[in-house]
Amino acid sequence: MRICEIFTSIQGESSYAGLPCTFIRVAGCNLRCTYCDTTYVYDEGAEVSLQEIMQNVRDAGTGLVEITGGEPLLQNEIHLLVSGLLEEGYTLLIETNGSQSIAGVDPRAVVILDIKTPGSGMHEKMDLSNLAMIKPSAEIKFVITGREDYQWSKDMIRAYGLSEKCHILMSPAYGTLPPSDLARWILEDRLNVRLNIQLHKYIFDPERRGV
Description:
Elements: E1 2-10, E2 20-26, E3 46-47, H1 50-60, E4 64-68, H2 78-87, E5 91-96, E6 110-114, E7 139-144, H3 147-159, E8 167-172, H4 179-189, E9 194-195, H5 200-203
Parallel strand pairs: 2-4, 4-5, 5-6, 6-7, 7-8, 8-9
Antiparallel strand pairs: 1-2, 1-3
């Protein structure tokens, strides 16, 4: 597989936030979101064998693993890696950008599905058929750049009945929308979502890689 980096840090997002986690960041992405904070995955990366990846994870010693990107589902070998990690007993998160079908993902994995908002510039690239395949263990994430994105996300949640299907995350775009604004809107609307702040950007230097 073409891998950009493997590192262990504190999980900064999702309902697993705050836990030690080993991240496998695959190289390559088919989207170009306006707020992307991992643009280095577009061009960086090296071929790494599945055996090497698995050994890196074993050596890291955490029970929680996340495969992220880039876009993990662009690489066919991802399914062999997923199966291998699950067979060894890891709790496995797969963060995907919403443009690729999740139909082939092992149901034991926790899918974190990023639905791109208009502020991302990529919302028309979404494969919305994924929303019919979401399992209760999954999490759907909306990155919010402003009030328009917030309203759009509310409409999507309502239209697809997402609150009844899985966990919903709303993230303020770092450096664009103050978390306090998004928190206020959620409270005003009594919206049943989790405010999803990128903890690692507050714990560490937000420009630092490998955290």
